[in-house]
Amino acid sequence: MRRKINAGEVMFVDQHLSETVEQLRGRQITPVDVAVVEAVAITESGGIVPTTSVGNSASFAMLAQKVIVEINLNMPAGLEGLHDIYLPTPRPQRQPIALVSVDQRIGLPYIPVDPAKIAAIVITQKDDSPSNALPPDQETRQIAGHLNDFLAHEVRSGRLAPSLQPLQAGIGTIANAVLHGLIDSTIELLDAGRLRFASASSVTLTSAVYARFLADLERYKTRVILRPQEISNHPELLRRLGLITINTALECDIYGNVNSTHVGGTHMMNGIGGSGDFARNAHLSVFVTKSVAKAGAISSIVPMVSHVDHTEHDVDIIVTEHGLADLRGLAPRERAQQVIDHCADPLYRELLRDYVTRATRRGGHTPHLIEEALAWHARLREDGTMGGTKAALAAA
């Protein structure tokens, strides 16, 4: 799919996860004709009991003209009761979403569907796809260490309670590894009693942890809940609950803008997912990345990102294996100094300082050399590396 998107064969629309069904309900995008929903059961009233993912299935099923239910016999019937299916009422008379804590239930344990809409029931036997995230390495452990030290400092300063606030970690090898370094895996935290409750729109685990989770479902159902993604990612809820969010960046620029999706500004690596929902509305918005890629040929800290998914206004903290830049309350010139000093790799630190020095001479609230701002990316495209002398980079 990624290859076809980048070749222009598939017209992919990248959206914040909280927005898709809102646009469907408002008829801003093409209606759903047929929804296919994986389930473990259908209730007598036609309610569909999902498996390990809710996502937008509830809204798709309710808005579609016809529904095909795929009963997966490899998924245990004990999954019933894991879900909390709640959908917002119509605008503009919508009532507030009554969630005031992560562990609260306000919906149904199934997706309500008119039985007349169910066009077919298909039986399948297929295991869920396990997580393919790589294990932590030295760099991600260092990133986790910097973030752990920062959170401890926030506690000592009285800005966070010792129990912190609800944590969110985005999908991806680096974010997963950092979360592992901070607090170990979610399931192991639940087992150890260090995590009170976990809420999500789906469950993706390694094969070994998946087997453990499914084998002890009755216990985990008291500590885990799956909701529609427009609820798990709802901006108002995120702001009110005061989340600390940890998401992955492909690259960050010296002023705090983040590219999460496009390599070189053109080729999609992955969609934005829910990171925009969380970053804009978090109590603390953290982005993590290794400082370099491809054995140092690519710097993840650049003068200007080649594609903007998260603007400087939505980014509080940037962390690499070299350190942490706290950007809260800083003007652009101050942010640049923090990002370069604490997050850039030594291979590129002086080049970035030279860029800022020369850009500052031209003035401006956010100093840039427009003719050089993307020169590093151009050099990478032509020579396979962002490295080289300052003169070579300036001439790229």
UniProtKB/TrEMBL annotation:
It holds the Pfam family AcetylCoA_hyd_C. Keywords: Hydrolase. It comes from the Bacteria. GO terms for biological process: acetate metabolic process. Residues 214-355 form the Acetyl-CoA hydrolase/transferase C-terminal domain. It comes from Cupriavidus basilensis OR16. GO terms for molecular function: acetate CoA-transferase activity; acetyl-CoA hydrolase activity. The keyword Hydrolase applies. Residues 2-122 form the Acetyl-CoA hydrolase/transferase N-terminal domain. This is Acetyl-CoA hydrolase. Coiled coil: none annotated. The lineage of its organism: Bacteria, Pseudomonadati, Pseudomonadota, Betaproteobacteria, Burkholderiales. The keyword Hydrolase applies. Belongs to the acetyl-CoA hydrolase/transferase family.
